[in-house]
Structures are given as structure tokens and as C-alpha cells.
Write a structure and sequence with these properties.
Number of domains: 2
Oligomer: single chain
Structural class: mainly alpha
Helix content: 55-70%
Low-confidence stretches: none
Number of helices: 12
Order of helices and strands: EHEHHEEHHHHHHHHH
Largest sheet: 4 strands, mixed
Length: about 280
Amino acid sequence: MKTLNQHTLVYDKDCPLCDWYTGMFLKYNLLDEKGREDYTDVINNNLFQFDTAKAKNKIALVNRENGDVTYGIDSMLKVLGYRFSFVRILGKFPPIYWFLTQLYNFITYNRKVVIASDCNKLGSCVPSRNMFWRVFFILFCGVITTWIVDSYFFNRLDEYYIGTRIITDASLFIAQLAFQYVACLILKEKNIYDYIGQVAFVSFLGALLLLGFSLGLQFLSLFHLNIELLEILCYGVVVAFMFFEHKRRVYVAGNNAWLSWTWVLFRLLAYPFAFSLF
């Protein structure tokens, strides 16, 4: 099998996704034994010459023989396309190349949110701030969260849910972001950019867990079991999960610890307007 020799990917070892796929490239001999180096080690030891700012956003692939460098999706296509010619051919087809580029940007500019990281570490491979991709990421999380949670509210908690088809979980999602943004200003949180992304992603994770519970409840209903209390309990478990996950991410990212409690305060203030127990 063909191996792309004399090429090294300069990757972010603090990004589990980056670590995984570059590891797979080495495991399956798409690159030689020196096929990847950590970004920070490369900088500290001055191993290669490349655009260090660009490489924080788009992984650099350095030709160790002549110093040529490619970045981002071009690096991926070069590694995969060397062995699989169809990948190179399809990947360069303009509509596909455009889509892959946008997908790559969506992931790379938000990777420190998906995997909570301390973005204040000096010398680490932290992507540049890109408002377009951060807003797009938040909108993506919001749309998926609203779709899943609304379905759960209207189908399983409809007896208690006050919301309408117009005023949905999207209102809670947006209000939560706004509330936490104000809390950041009051608490003088320095990294609002990443923190607001974390809030949106925690809601997204909660929605995925709720979807899993919903599928499980649907299965139980096939046996004509009374699942009314379970429907309430499952949502409670999801909220508890979101709190602890939010708290963990605040700690890992080095944000103000009080933000976890303002997150709880918002829920306590908002839920009476969303649910009625009588």
C-alpha cells in the first residue's frame, strides 16, 4: 500500500479529534513514522518553517524534503488522495471541495468548544476567533436543540408545558444565551466568545441525551407501560446532566465558577413560565 513519505502533519495534540485521525493516518501507514508532530513541540523546537498563525486554524502538512506546505482540507486530501485516487478526484470537484472546506471550517473554528479546553494557555494551538463560524455553530446547536426538545415537550410533557407552537424551546435557548451573556459582563468574564459557545453546546448535548431517553420511552410504550412519571424523571436527569457538564466545562476552560450558578438561576426563573404543575 502507498505511504506518503517525508510529510508531517502539524497537529493539535490537545484536540482529541485531531489526535485520533492523525493517529489513524499513522496506524494505517498513510504517513511514515514521522508523519505527525505536535504544534507546540514544532514551535518550541523550530522544526519546520510554515505559517504558524494559519496552522492554528488549518492543519499544516509539511514536505520535509523541500519545505512545501499545504493547509486544512488540502492537507487531508493530499494524505488520503495519495493512496485513494478517487478521494483526490472527488475532493477537487468544485462543489464537493467547497462543501468539504466549509465543513472543515465549521469543525476547526469550534473544536475548542466541542472539546472543552483552556484557550488561555500560552503557546497552545488555539484557533483564531471567527464570529461567522461561532454564530453558525450556535445557530446549529439551537436548531437541533429546539427540534428535539420541542418534540419532547409537546409529545411527552404537553400536560405541563405552557409553550405554544410559536413560543417554543427556541425562546428558552435564546434567553439562556442572553442571560449568561449579561452574567459574563457582570462577572467580568474575559472569554465570553468561547463561553457562549459552551452554553449552546451543553444545550445541544442535553438535547441528544433527551432524544435517547425519548427513543427508550417509545420502546417501553410498546409494552403498554405507564411511563408518565418516567417522562418527567428523564427530563430532570437531562437538566441535572446539563448542570454538571456545564460546571465541568467552566472549570476546564478556566471561566468564572459563578457562571454555573447563574445558569441555574436562569432555569429557576424561566421554568415557571414554561411549565405548570397545576
